[in-house]
């Protein structure tokens, strides 16, 4: 119990005194995850729309595969990205291992299937509604995809937030590819793992509380900015 | 409103951090970092050399692997035979001894196995095995793990044949100490990590002082003829600094609760 209480107290002080190191680590967490989210959404959402409007031979298989990949273990993704980016790996010359870019790469791979699967669910339903109309006014495929993406933007927001949630709390992959280097690749989750290793449970818990608060704050902020969940509006 | 979000995101993403000129990567063992010594040395290195050393805190086995792959510029580890093999295979240019600390046998203060009365490290381990008391092993091929295995061997015992009382956790020093603290188990730790550990619980140092428990740290720059992108010059600068009187003062002067942790023993190059 004492650790729990101390953790709460310490978290409170870390936040109110605006600890410089905590701010830096939190900001890096946000930067890495939001970048990964933007990149992943740019890949996953058009892909989901394409899978909804286009009929081709292996479409069902691709959708099933995307669904299966939602459960991709982050630690395996981390290991594969590590081996790819290592100096002795195929992309070693880029020198990207142990940089934030490597962490973003791993997170993109982890959340693309998740965002694409969730987005595909709602886009497919919307496409059933829109199908006859869009076919009858004879629009191009690009226009179909754009229309679907725009009109399903609320559902896509949910998909994006699910991806954000998975990425911000992820530790297995970014620990491997980022290396948890102080002032360079240390983020909230890896810092928590480190402090737990040192037996400093109070500080670890304080960081955990900050992480949860951050995740909630981002969700609330995005909902507020996009005016969902308000009375009298869809 | 979507534009506002997008603009906010872009601002956050584009503001990537700027890095100092001299940046090198060094793989170090968990014990070096957990001891807190790195928090003393790194700022001094930054002040003196204007060099930012990025630490990758891993076990000795992984540190050597990082050096082999060329993912770091130098390594600072403690496992002599593995280090010598690393240099012999041409992955490191040479091996330079920097400092040492010692290993201690940690266990529950009640000491049911009677480790505290043992004369040698071998006898201490034999009494744990004889009593079949729970023992936590690092099991991660780190320097500490290698040391532990060699100590069992010296004691005439084979860890592979041990029963369920021998728990191989496959984790760093801190995690192994956490496990031992939770189980009330015996564990081999370096003194520095132990003193800096925050969750001691009922555990205490039961045995130390046998010369076989000394733990020599050595610095090995990665060979540029294997990996031409390695920052040899910075690695050489760091080596000069680590063997300088300035480093000696800091290393010998570093103490927790009045106990010195490391003894500087680098010889002039």
Automatic annotation (TrEMBL), chain A:
Cited Gene3D superfamilies: MetI-like
Membrane topology category: Multi-pass membrane protein
Single Gene Ontology BP annotation: transmembrane transport
Localization in the cell: Cell membrane
Keywords: Membrane, Transmembrane, Transmembrane helix
Positions of the ABC transmembrane type-1 domain: 26-222
SUPFAM superfamilies, alphabetized: MetI-like
Domain of life, source organism: Bacteria
Signal peptide span: none
Any one annotated GO CC term: plasma membrane
Main subcellular location of this protein, as a coarse class: membrane
InterPro entries hit by this protein: ABC_perm_TupB-like, MetI-like, MetI-like_sf
Transmembrane segments: 32-51, 63-85, 91-116, 155-181, 201-225
Keyword Transmembrane helix: yes
Keyword match Transmembrane: yes
NCBIfam families: ABC_perm1 (NF038017)
Protein name (database record): ABC transporter permease
Species in which this protein is naturally found: Actibacterium mucosum KCTC 23349
From TrEMBL, chain B:
Organism superkingdom: Bacteria
Protein name: Sulfate ABC transporter substrate-binding protein
Spans through the membrane: none
PBP domain segment(s): 27-245
Pfam families, sorted: PBP_like_2 (PF12849)
Record InterPro entries: ABC-Tungstate_binding, PBP_domain
Keywords: Signal
Keyword Electron transport: no
Provenance organism: Actibacterium mucosum KCTC 23349
Signal peptide range in chain numbering: 1-20
């Amino acid at each position: 119990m004492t650790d729990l209480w101390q953790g709460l107290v310490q978290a409170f002080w870390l936040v109110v005194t605006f600890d410089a190191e905590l701010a830096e680590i939190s900001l890096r967490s946000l930067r890495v995850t939001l970048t990964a989210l933007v990149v992943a959404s740019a890949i996953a959402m058009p892909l989901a729309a394409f899978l909804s409007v286009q009929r081709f031979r292996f479409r069902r298989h691709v959708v099933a595969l995307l669904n299966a990949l939602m459960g991709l273990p982050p630690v395996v993704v981390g290991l594969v990205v590590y081996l790819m980016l290592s100096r002795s790996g195929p992309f070693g010359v880029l020198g990207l291992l142990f940089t934030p870019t490597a962490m973003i790469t791993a997170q993109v791979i982890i959340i693309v299937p998740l965002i694409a699967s969730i987005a595909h669910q709602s886009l497919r339903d919307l496409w059933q509604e829109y199908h006859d109309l869009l076919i009858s006014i004879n629009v191009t495929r690009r226009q179909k995809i754009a229309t679907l993406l725009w009109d399903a933007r609320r559902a896509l927001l949910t998909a994006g937030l699910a991806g954000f949630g998975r990425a911000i709390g992820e530790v297995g992959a970014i620990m491997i590819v980022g290396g948890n280097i102080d002032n360079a690749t240390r983020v909230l989750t890896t810092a928590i793992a480190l402090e737990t290793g040192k037996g400093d449970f109070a500080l670890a818990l304080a960081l955990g509380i900050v992480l949860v608060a951050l995740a909630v704050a981002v969700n609330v902020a995005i909902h507020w900015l996009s005016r969902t969940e308000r009375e009298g509006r869809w | 409103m979507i534009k506002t979000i997008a603009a906010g995101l872009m601002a956050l993403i584009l503001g990537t951090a700027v890095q100092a000129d001299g940046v090198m990567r060094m793989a170090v063992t968990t014990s070096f970092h957990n001891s807190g010594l790195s928090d003393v040395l790194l700022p001094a290195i930054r002040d003196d050399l204007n060099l930012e050393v990025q630490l990758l805190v891993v076990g000795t086995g992984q540190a050597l692997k990082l050096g082999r792959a060329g993912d770091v510029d130098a390594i600072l580890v403690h496992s002599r035979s593995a280090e010598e093999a690393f240099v012999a295979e041409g992955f490191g240019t040479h091996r330079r001894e920097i400092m040492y600390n010692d290993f201690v046998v940690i266990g529950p203060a009640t000491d049911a196995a009677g480790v505290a009365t043992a004369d040698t490290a071998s006898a201490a381990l034999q009494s744990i095995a004889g009593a079949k008391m729970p023992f936590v092993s690092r099991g991660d091929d780190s320097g500490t793990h290698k040391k532990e295995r060699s100590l069992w061997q010296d004691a005439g015992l084979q860890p592979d044949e041990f029963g369920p009382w021998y728990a191989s956790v496959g984790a760093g020093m801190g995690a192994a100490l956490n496990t031992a603290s939770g189980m009330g188990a015996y564990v081999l730790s370096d003194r520095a990590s132990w003193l800096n550990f925050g969750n001691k619980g009922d555990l205490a140092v039961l045995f130390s002082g046998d010369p076989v428990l000394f733990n020599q740290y050595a610095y090995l720059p990665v060979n540029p003829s294997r990996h031409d992108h390695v920052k040899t010059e910075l690695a050489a600068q760091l080596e000069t600094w680590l063997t300088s009187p300035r480093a000696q003062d800091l290393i010998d002067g570093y103490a927790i609760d009045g106990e010195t942790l490391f003894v500087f023993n680098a010889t002039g190059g």
